[in-house]
Design a protein that fits this description.
This protein is α/β, with parallel strands linked by helices and about 375 residues long. Helices cover about 40% and strands about 10% of the residues. The chain has a single domain (about 1-335, about 355-375), classed as Arginase, Chain A (3-Layer(aba) Sandwich). The longest helix has 20 residues, at about 85-105. Bound molecules: zinc ion.
Length: about 375
């Protein structure tokens, strides 16, 4: 059972013109949501996170700072900006992540047809702005509130004993790592291009105090392929997840490791992202662990649409993904390059999405596995 959480309000956060984390990303997410809603996938509306929910991971002074931007365009850091409605939209993104957690933990307040069904369930939360760079007291890297951290803290508050976060965005989730660095109840696993923005995420960062061993960083050299990512998942990430036995799996789902992404230097394909989703889906299904996927980065619009569409297909356990993908691919450019108020100038995003799939592993995956094993084997003996 899969639910989506989405809202057209996510188009109301307006970074300056030319910013990669742009409004059109919300239109892509909405197109994916509309497409699957028309095929019977339930879509839940988000609600704003409350102050109490945000304060589980952010400081009171930081909440005041964001609230003070209401109605205004403010530069929060080198590449993070607010607009009139950003404070509200960011709270809605964090709240959407909570709605996703609640949906899979007990489905309270929903009218899902199989409410009460014991099967494992999945949620895909389609939000912007992203969250994983945001720290307790700092906006950073396009992120205002740390959506996945708010979701994890909510799950802990609801009684979960062990929450795992897998972050496959191409950037290191520095904010998420830092928020739970000393907390053994939250396992944070991140794959990321390294060295790269934001500079953190070395393999030797393994957690501290009571949380030592519960941060697993998998830094990967630029140029990694689908095969490299799958190797890392099969040799490191999935074994650690199985050993941890989470009550809830959260995924920071960023798609900027794709070969066409304008911000990074990895060489993944849409098929490769589908495979990562399939690995996590299978693990969660076997372990009967509910899972919530929350969007992070991904700045090539057609890639973002195709990856999200593929992920929905995977989480529905659909094999007929080819037909659905093409439907969304058609919907995406029409909304971002054509006529009407949403129109943007033609960009490389509007070119056909033809991929050269580099399926096999290069040396980068094996090197990452070797490095992480050397650091993490003392905490995870099965590696
Ligand atoms: Zn990213």
């Amino acid at each position: 059972m899969l639910v989506l959480v989405s809202s057209d309000r996510f188009a109301d956060h307006l970074p300056p013109p030319g910013h990669p984390e742009r409004v059109a990303r919300a239109h892509v997410m909405q197109a994916v949501s509309d497409h699957w809603a028309s095929r019977g996938v339930p879509v839940l509306a988000p609600r704003p996170a409350t102050a109490a929910e945000l304060l589980r991971v952010h400081t009171p002074a930081y909440l005041d700072r964001i609230a003070a931007t209401a109605g205004r365009a403010v530069k929060l850091d080198a590449d993070t900006f607010t607009s009139r409605d950003t404070a509200e939209v960011a709270a809605l993104a964090a709240g959407a992540s909570i709605v996703g957690v609640d949906a899979v933990l007990d489905r309270a307040g929903t009218t899902l047809p199989d409410a009460g069904h014991p099967d494992v369930s999945f949620a895909l939360v389609l939000v912007r702005p992203p969250g994983h760079h945001a720290e307790a007291a700092r906006a950073m890297g396009f992120c205002i509130y740390n959506n996945v951290a708010v979701a994890a803290a909510h799950a802990l508050a609801r009684g979960c004993a062990r929450v795992a976060i897998v972050d496959y965005d191409v950037h290191h989730g520095n904010g998420t790592e830092r928020i739970f660095y000393t907390d053994r109840r939250v396992l944070f696993i991140s794959t990321h291009q390294f060295p790269f923005y934001p500079g953190t995420g070395a393999a030797e960062e393994t957690g501290a105090a009571g949380g030592e061993g519960f941060t697993v960083n998998v830094p990967i050299e630029a140029g990694a392929t689908d095969g490299d990512y799958l190797l890392v998942f099969d040799r490191v990430i999935l074994p650690v997840l199985r050993a941890f036995q989470p009550d809830l799996l959260l995924v920071s789902a960023g798609f900027d490791a794709h070969m066409r992404d304008p911000l990074a230097g990895m060489r993944m394909s849409v098929a490769g992202f589908n495979d990562l989703g399939r690995r996590l889906y299978a693990l969660a299904s076997v372990a009967r662990c509910p899972a919530v996927f929350i969007t992070e980065g991904g700045y090539h619009l057609k890639v973002l649409g195709a990856c999200l569409d593929g992920l929905v297909g995977v989480l529905l356990d659909r094999r007929d993904k080819a037909t659905t993908s093409s439907a969304v691919a058609k919907a995406v450019p029409a909304r971002v390059s054509g006529k009407g108020p949403d129109a943007e100038p033609l960009t490389p995003d509007d070119l056909p999405l033809s991929e050269e799939v580099v399926a096999g592993p290069s040396r980068r995956g094996a090197a990452a596995v070797q490095l992480v094993r050397a650091v993490q084997q003392r905490y995870w003996p099965g590696l």
